[in-house]
Amino acid sequence: MERKERVVLENMCMIQDGSKVLVEDKIGKDIRGIIFPGGHIEENEPIVDSIIREIREETGLTIEHPVLCGVKDWIEPDGTRYIVFLFRAEKFSGTLTSSEEGQVFWVEKDEVLNLPWIWEMDGLMRILSDGEYAEMFLSADNDWKAVLR
Q1: Strand pairing report for 38-40 and 7-17
Q2: Which residue of 36, 131, 135, 138 could cross-link 147, Cys pair, CB 3.0 to 4.6 Å?
């Protein structure tokens, strides 16, 4: 039995400043909506280094001590597993600057789900904010399964 599979690794981080969190109005190919900043993990790049790099590239901020809160994963039609490592950070420095990935801005944490979000933000908030879930997995029947802690 083969124990290897093709995997794409990504990351995402909810940066919190008091009662506010940083969100991104993501602009991409066939994508438009509110999400937390993040991106691809490069080949041979440590996962924590990747989230620090991605946040700096997309927001201008340098985060410190990101905390891994859980994962979101699914299987693509070609069989590739997609894994997104979900982080939270409360300590950062720098000047907030948007990028070609989208506009970044602060919003009250309890208002996030009222925005035009994408990518199952309600479930992500239950991992990143509430700590209720450890994982969100998209099953073969296209149903998101939340895994409790």
Answers
A1: antiparallel
A2: 135
